[in-house]
Write a structure and sequence with these properties.
7 helices; 0% strand; mainly alpha; single chain; 171 residues
């Protein structure tokens, strides 16, 4: 019962952070439709996250999983601003959810990436941070991920997920 409570709480934090500035819903969207969509999305992401719990996921598979979330969102195209969630919102959803699972000890391995947002880009000294809410594909996202990989040795940290936690705590 405690674990289910925590999983619900981290989902609420995840959806709030991922949707807060993203202008996800169309103007005529009903609250009941939003709720159905969020519940459906929750089930999809929880199911997807199970593949990360005990075995390593390749970077290519991780990117594909982000695209799967975007594709899945099209089921609710009539209530979404652009008929789907964009890549930036999808990466934030999956990466933040995985980060919470990992930090709570529900995942044995580090997540392959971290949530790309303005905070981490600023911490990585990216001069003109990309708007994560406007990312339509993995190009800008991977630029940030690769910059983080380049910083690992200078911080003496083994993974970009650990680097993001270290940098995030120092804000």
């Amino acid at each position: 019962m405690k674990k289910e409570f925590m999983l619900n709480e981290i989902w609420m934090l995840t959806i709030g952070a991922s949707f807060q500035r993203a202008n996800v819903y169309s103007t005529e969207c009903l609250d009941s439709d939003k709720l159905k969509f969020r519940n459906h999305l929750k089930d999809f992401i929880i199911n997807l996250s199970k593949s990360y719990l005990h075995e390593p996921i390749s970077e290519d598979q991780h990117i594909e999983n982000i695209y799967q979330i975007r594709e899945h969102s099209k089921i609710y195209k009539t209530i979404l601003t652009n008929g789907e969630l964009n890549f930036g919102v999808c990466q934030k959803l999956l990466n933040l959810y995985l980060k919470y699972l990992w930090c709570l000890g529900y995942m044995e391995l580090n997540p392959p990436h971290f949530p790309v947002d303005r905070i981490i880009q600023t911490k990585l000294s990216i001069k003109n941070p990309y708007s994560w809410t406007q990312m339509v594909d993995e190009e800008k996202y991977m630029e940030v991920i690769n910059m983080a990989k380049d910083c690992l040795k200078s911080y003496n940290i083994d993974s970009i997920a650990e680097l993001e936690l270290f940098l995030y705590q120092r804000r």
